[in-house]
Amino acid sequence: MRIGGLERFSLIDFPGVPAAVVFTRGCNFRCPYCHNGSLLTGETVSDDALSEERVLSFLESRRGRLSGVVVSGGEPTIQPDLPRFLASIRGMGYAVKLDTNGSRPEMIERVISSGLVDHIAMDVKAPCELYSTLSGVSVDTDAVMESLSLIAASGLPHLFRTTIPPGLLTKEDVAAIRALIPEGSPHLIQPCRTENALVPEVCGSGVYSPSPSHNAPAPFPAP
Fold first, then answer.
1. Is 101 exposed, middle or buried (0-12, 13-18, 19+ CB in 10 A)?
2. CB neighbours of 98 closer than 8 A, spacing ≥ 6?
């Protein structure tokens, strides 16, 4: 696994669970408002403290003090070693939450069917016709919709969430996004932090002011 960061303790990233957060390197999206730009490439980090071996050793040392691990990114599902890595974490007795952009439904289905995740949060970027614009690359929206359906039908606790980048989505766009969310699934609308945006010049003045969304649980921030 290519690992780019480790948050050793969090009370907000895994609802109700004291957890560590592992940030994987590499992402297949280039969202202009992304604030984790340093994780976008899959290049190996020289810092040995972020090697998979060291991260797993840290998690082993925190058994009994932490209850969960969030695997975020970057985009974890593009890494072929993800199931093995999650299995190692589950083998220590941790609950696992996966954060994903939903672009790899085959990997999402694999980790769900293998019982490797306990909670999934998926970012829903835009209405289908704007998905490539908001993601910065050409996106297979059929794959995104398949992931929505897989997660909603999984029986696992889950959350769909949408970040509102200033100037890039309108109220009508947000209504169209909400229409994509499967019935009964929670959907969280959250504001965008633009101070570290990947392409700050495209994030203009806000045209949409987030309001509480339907079926929304208590908010917790995106990675």
1. buried
2. 70, 71, 76, 77, 86, 108, 111, 117, 119, 120, 121
pLDDT of residue 221: 31
pLDDT in tens, 123-167: 999 999 999 999 999 999 999 999 999 999 999 999 999 998 878
Tokens coding 119: 């909670």
Query: Tokens 């299995």 sit at which residue?
Result: 87
> How far is 206 from 9, CA to CA, in rounded Å?
32
**R_g (Cα) of the chain, nearest Å:** 17
Confidence bin at 191 (pLDDT 50/70/90):
confident
Pairwise CA distance, residues 183 & 152, whole Å: 9
**Lookup result for tokens 């899959």:** 42
Residue type, 33: Y
Q: Structure tokens of 8?
A: 């050793």
**Of 64, 3, 67, 74, nearest to 37 (Cα)?**
74
| Beta-carbon count within 10 A of 125 CB | 27
Preceding omega of 74 cis (within 30 degrees of 0): yes
103-112, 167-176, 190-199: range with highest mean pLDDT: 103-112
According to DSSP, the β-strands at 95-100 and 119-123 are parallel
Q: Which domains does the chain have, with CATH numbers?
A: 3-202 (3.20.20.70)
Phi, psi of 132 (to 5 degrees): -65, -35
